[in-house]
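Sequence in, structure out.
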Amino acid sequence: MASPSFPVSRRANVHSSAEGSREWGIAEEVPVEIGFNGTAWTVMMASPTDVEDLAIGLALTEGAVASGRDIKTVAIRQWPEGLTADIRIAPDLVRSDRIHRRALDGRTGCGLCGVEQLADLHAPPSALPPGPRVEAAAIRAALDALPGHQHLNRETRSVHAAAWCRLDGEIILVREDIGRHNALDKLAGARLRGGEPDDAGFVVMSSRCSFELVFKAARMRAALLAGQSAPTGLALDLATRLALRVAAAGPDGAIVFFSPESADE
């Protein structure tokens, strides 16, 4: 939950060309230090809410831990400078190679910070096994419903959302953050906290499908990743290697499938 001293938004007076002077919600971001057993790993700029989910999700999607079951607790502490999230886990279950190779410098919009060498970009998780088909109608339903779940964005119009959806398009879990990567990590943490869920589903994002999001969605074993806009070339290349299907909102309400095996849809 958000710390009382770190509200997720504030009110500011603005001038609208259509409405004149009015109040507007401004999203807050604070430094969040994430570490293991008292040792700092990374500092992320993030919305000060669902910090435990962020810590667990980042540790899992970056491969620093193998399973949510391995995490005992996450201790959240508030400091004048920001928040800390200390993941308690047996030392032998922390993958030190991933921590040392990707010591993240977490700027809000950056998914490459901390990559030591280009080779790190080409060490994704293994390809997904064949998964269930996600129909265009289900993706359209989820994309249409997503704004109704973006409570912070309705106030500020400056944060992203990541949603886990059933195969029929029903949204069952949403997380918001100023960073699209943070939002997906929070979603992963919320789903994976304390175990490995086995329910089939797909991820819908309020952003485009970047290669980092493809990587993280594959870690979550999503059946598909859908975004509001088209993927980049690198994202599509990675999705093809991981056998992760990718879709986006197209013109006139159409759903565009970018995965080669979905061309006939």
